[in-house]
Write a structure and sequence with these properties.
The protein has about 90 residues and is mostly helical. The chain has one domain (about 1-10, about 25-85). Helices cover about 65% and strands about 0% of the residues. The chain has three helices and no strands. It has helices spanning about 1-10, 25-55, 65-85. The chain is elongated. The two termini are about 30 Å apart. The relative contact order is 0.14.
Length: about 90
Amino acid sequence: MFYVIVIGASITPCFLDFKDINVEYERNKNIMIALQVFNVIFLIEAGLKIIAFGIYQMPTSYFRSRSNWLEFFLALVGLVQLILGNHY
């Protein structure tokens, strides 16, 4: 369930109509803030899992699971969104 929420939050900007950003500024601003909060939480969770499980050496390491590959990719996309801000 957590993955569904995070993926939904990550793709939310794809469905926004940025042409009307001045008309619905407050709504879009709140959505962008929520997106940034989800991205930070997701980055922290991925970082803690990497620290706890290790990167790849052991059989239970972080990158041995395919779902963690997806999680790491989404965390990287979120990091790029945080760095670029609203300039993309």
